[in-house]
Amino acid sequence: MTFRLKTLSAALLLSATGIAAAPLAAQDAAALNELDAQLPGDLVNNPSRIDWQSYGADLEASAIVDESIPGGGAARRFEIKRAAEFIYTAGTNVPLTKPVNRGETITIGFYARTISADTDDGRGIVRVRFQQNAEPFPGFGEETITIGSEWEWYEVTAEAEQKLRKKDGIVAIQFGRTRQTIEIGQAIIVSGSSTIASEGPVTVAAARIEVPELEMPDGLAETGTLINNPGQARWKFGGSAGSYANRDEPEIWMMKATRFEVAEPGTNLTDLYATIPIEQPISKGDNLTIAIAAKTIATSAADGKAVAASRIQGTAPPFESFASNRFKVSDKWQMIKIKTQAPRDYTAGGSELQVYFGGTEQQVDLGPVYIFKTAE
Asked: Please, what CATH class does the domain formed by 10-191 belong to?
């Protein structure tokens, strides 16, 4: 059995101005519906997308478009440069587009191959886990598979032990415990079936996707040396003052945003937040520039501007902080710039930026965040 998805339009490509093209067109949605009709069970992801969130301090991820790649001609390459103690320290998250209810069967299938791996047999090692992409990251159906050197089709299935919601349900593919380079093609996820391709190869023909790992706004291009990943792949979100939800945002660089909502006043500003890891070392006296893309969606403030705050802090006791700032956010996408100087040395991964949204009734979208070392 061969499943074919018609060619999608440039919904995922960036225009020459750096702003995303139009959202998924009606004909593209029809193509996904056509694929869904051919599959066993119900399609619960968008197989044409490979701009998955990826994370790991020693990980390099890149998009590959090549007609020789089975399943549709596109894949992501993951190079894990240094093995960690735990497999979950590096990975990629394939998002769901529909909820999966508790008790339903869920199955993911994808083509993959290993370029190189520090294992006895040269096969790559990945773990697949169905989970919620929010603290405390509950999940189920963990299965470790080994990946050969030739393109092969792999499937993992499980019975859902909890409901996976559309807003934060994912299939996590983890691979941080092995120094390796692997490639994973376009993925298909279905509910209600324990298999996808029992009768033959799967083809999601058409996704010719080139998603940049880094999109730099023109005004930041010459700022300095970037010391973090401005995308949201490794960020953490939390707090008790309200809710947060990751979403596609075609009007901002890298097309991703997180919406923070505080429904009741009287909370603390720091009770709803995003944590952005700083992946490079910082030395005492280093000049830093922080650039935060944000937009107010709604607020109870008379001037129509939401209030947010930020600070850099250590990741180990005593968690000392510096560069505390409070700022207002316009109802149009804006880039808030903050300049500061490091008071002491920090190792790679030894510091992080936190951005806060609690304190008052408001909704704020947070886009990419850039942290630079600068000459002055």
From this structure: mainly beta
